[in-house]
Every structure is written in C-alpha cells, then in structure tokens.
Amino acid sequence: MTVNASNNSGARPFIDDDLEPSRRECIHDDEKLCKWNLNRLVSSFPLEIRSSTICKGSGLFTSAAIPEGHEIYHVLPTMDNITADNPSFCSYCLKNTQEVLGGPSKANEETKACSRCKVARYCSKFVRQLGKKYRLWFRGGSSQRYLRVRSIKPIAAGEEITICYVDPALTLTARKAFLQHEYFFDCSCNRCKAERKECSSLLGGTEKLSTLPQYQQDIVQLIGAAVKAAKYPGVFPDYEDPAAIETRLRTITVNAFPPGKSWPEHMEPLPSARLSLAMLYLGKGQPVPALRNALKAQLLSSRRRGREWVNDMMDVITILIVAASLPPDSSAFMDKKFPPSSDIHNVTVGYFIAAADQASGVFGAEAEYAKGISHMTNVMAKQKGPPMPGSKEFIEAFVSAQRKLLEWAGIPEENAVVIRGM
Predict the structure, then answer these.
(1) Domain presence at residue 174
(2) Which long-range contacts (CB under 8 A, 24 or more apart) does 206-210 make?
(3) Are residues 284 and 409 in the same domain?
(4) Which residues does 38 contact at the CB level (< 8 Å), separation at least 6?
(5) Which partner from 11, 33, 205, 362 sits 20 to 30 angstroms from 198, CA to CA?
(6) What is the DSSP letter of 107?
(7) In terms of Cα–Cα distance, which of 242, 220, 218 is closest to 230?
(8) For the CA atoms of 265, 270, 271, 274, what is the dihedral angle to 10 degrees?
C-alpha cells in the first residue's frame, strides 16, 4: 500500500492532460505522521511505514508473516464519500438498501434525498430527521463503517503490503500507462516484470514488445463490439454470432506471435475475452461452447485468487447449472467425452465451495456476499443429494467429475480447482 502526500499548486489554469505533479513529501519522512496513522489502525500484526520497494513513496510493511485470508487491519475512515451515482447508499449509515445476495430485502428503507441540500440521501425516517445539511464526514459508530483490509495471499515477514491500483484484467501495457498517467510511476511489481519477460521471450526480443499492444487492443475492441451487438440485436449483425467472434479471436491470437509461438492462455486480455465470449454463447442458448470458454478463462488464467476470481467463478457456476439442466436427449451428450449431468452437478457444488471459501477470505465471512454464496452452496448441495460435501465420498466424486470435465475442455489437470479436503 503506497501512500503519498502531495500539494498541487501553480498560477496556470488547469488544463486536462496537462497536469504536472508537484514535488512529493513522503509519509515515512515524518515520524509523527507515521505514528498517527499507525495508531489509528486496529491490527493483530506488527505494521510499520517506510520507503516503498515498488516506487517512490511510502509503503506499509509487516514484520510478521500474515496468512492468506486474514484481516490485516481495520480502521475508521477519515471521510465517507457517497457519490450521487450510488442512490441506494445512505450517506449517514452507509447502508445499501438494495436487496443483497443471500440477504433480506431492504426495499422498505429506500433512500430519499435530503430536503435541504438535495444531494445527501438518507435511508430511514430516523436518519432523515437528524436534520444534517450534508453529513459527509463521520467518526465512530457501527462496525459496518470500518475500512477492512484483508490478505488474498500469504505475506511474508518484512514484505510490503500492497493493493492493486488498477483492474487486474488489464493488459501489461494498459496497466503501466494508467499507473504512469494517474500515479506518476513505473510499476516494477513481480507480475509486471514476469509478463514483460514472457512477452519478450515469445516475440524474440524486447524491441518487438511494441507490436503486442495493437493485438491486445484488437481483442478488446472485438469483444466490446460483440457485447454491444448482443445488447442491441439487429444493429451490428456482423458481431452477433459468438462462433464467428471466436474464430476472429483465434485469428488475432495466432497472428500476434511468430510461427510456432502461441498466445498464452493465461495472458490478458484473452482470459477476460473468453469469459465474455462464454456469456455471449450462453445468451444465445448455447451452454456447451459457453462452458468450454468459461472453464478456459477461469482455470487457465494466472489470477487464481481475489474478488475478481470469485466474481468470475460465479459466472462459471451459472453456466455449469445451465449445462447440468440440459435434457438427456441433448446433442451435448452425444459427445462421449462430455460429462453426464451427475458429474456436472458434483463439479458445480465443488466450485461453489471453492467460491465460498475464497469469498470468506477476501471479503470476510461476515460479509453479505460471502454469506450469500455459502447459503447458495448449501442449497445446491441439498438439492443434489448424497454424497454430501465434507465427506470423503464427495471429494472422490468431485475429483473424478472435474477430471472428466477438464479433459473434455482440453485443460491440463494441473489447473484443476482444489477444494478443502482434497
């Protein structure tokens, strides 16, 4: 987590894309400021602020190992800012009054705009009667208002604690450009260095790296056009057939590298493109090609943890549920390698378990999202019947079923999802 304090000033009028960052003073240079920040944190781990190892600035470090899925610290935010484009959030208690996954509906607590400022929104008669003109700043109170930071991977003693400043599904080029433009630094994290090295090896030298961004952009534009075509049927007929889109996607990935080299399945934007393609297939009532693309997107991606992984796994599970519901005389089962419905059911429950466990680690077991996934896991397990999750028989059934599914999809077994008990 790299934190910088800066003051931007100057006589020139502000012009978009013409902002020059001023000289920055780092938090770790001010002992009192470091102490004030650390004293606000509630943590069971020893934390310290010092010079970042990633860029110019300050970083948060731990002097003790932190296991995966643990809360690193929680803290009351100095300011709570609910923007106008989130009308379902209360500006006072920060409740989301929309129905949440696995939780009760709060439709009877619909937020209403403040009668004075017309900007702040409050969720109940009691809150609205507080008469605050614009309650944006808040201290103390419910634990729901805490900022909670959790580990999504093991963190070694002495290691810098980091967060991702960008969408991890972005390409190397896009990530580096965004970080340079928005945060004024060149990222040198392990992932960026590893991807640059891999691309250089595939292309035959670092001097050829400049050819790759155009192919990556072509993939993004192709999938974007297909998604738009699905949203507006008949307007973009050349992009409405998912099979044709998949063929064009394959052409782009083949042309991107020299003969004999192929686009790595784990390298963005291919995993994200495959998952979008899977949902397009599903929207056309074709769950079989949808499932093959979704499995490749999720299991071959280099991202195997985090909130994005949980969200993507829920899309995979959705497709699995549809595939398991195909009638016995479906053409899908004419393929001898395609697993029977019972095996797909077992894989679905296993993937639910994996998603629930990961959600509990990423969001916390008390989070509504994590509780919702756990609830759906239990419902799906009961509907499936024996063998029940947690038993040795279920683990054996899941491993066997997933092996068949991955063989059908052309995915190495080393990329299989591992659940507790295996």
Answers:
(1) no
(2) none
(3) yes
(4) 47, 48, 49
(5) 362
(6) G
(7) 242
(8) -110
Answer yes or no: do 29 and 131 share one domain: no
Q: Which residues contact 162 (CB under 8 A, 6 or more apart)?
A: 1, 2, 54, 59, 189
Residue count of the chain, please give it: 422
Could you tell me which of 388, 316, 310 has the C-alpha nearest to residue 346? 388
Of residues 343, 358, 316, 356, the one with CA closest to residue 405: 343
* Backbone dihedral angles phi then psi of residue 201, each to the nearest 5 degrees: -65, -40
Q: For the chain, what is the domain count?
A: 3
Residues 336 and 385 in one domain: yes
Q: To which residue do tokens 């999802």 refer?
A: 417
Do 283 and 409 sit in the same domain of this protein? yes
**Range(s) of the domain holding residue 86:** 78-144
Token pair listed for 146 = 């805490």
The one-letter amino acid code at 270 reads L
Alpha-carbon distances of 89 from 93, 95, 130, rounded to whole Å: 8, 5, 17
Long-range Cβ contacts of 27-33 (<8 Å, 24+ apart): 27/3, 27/58, 28/58, 28/59, 33/5
Peptide bond into 387 cis (omega under 30): yes
Q: Per the domain annotation, does 315 fall within a domain?
A: yes
* pLDDT tens profile 269-286: 999 999 999 999 999 999
Domain co-membership, 9 together with 90:
no
- Tell me the two tokens of residue 171: 């390409």
Closest CA relative to residue 359, chosen from 306, 399, 397: 306
153 & 270 share domain: no
Any domain includes 358: yes
Please report which helix (H) or strand (E) contains residue 407, including its range. Answer: helix 392-409
Extended beta strands in 154-237, E state: 160-161
Helix 307-324 vs helix 341-363: angle between axes, to the nearest 10 degrees? 160
Peptide bond into 269 cis (omega under 30): yes
Q: What is the pLDDT of residue 249?
A: 97
For 94-128, write each residue's pLDDT tens digit.
777 775 554 555 555 677 777 777 777 777 665 65
The model carries a pTM of 0.78
Q: Is 58 helix (H, G, I), strand (E, B) or coil?
A: strand
Question: Which residue's entry shows tokens 């398991």?
Answer: 324
Do 88 and 11 share a structural domain? no
pLDDT digits (tens, 9 = 90+) for 295-313: 999 999 988 889 999 999 9
Amino acid at 174: A
Radius of gyration of the chain from its Cα atoms, rounded to whole angstroms: 25
**Helix or strand (DSSP H, E) at 193:** helix 190-203
Residues 6 or more apart whose CB falls under 8 angstroms from that of 45 comprise 62, 64, 66, 72, 73
Q: How far is CA 334 from CA 104, 326, 337, 341, in A?
A: 43, 12, 9, 13
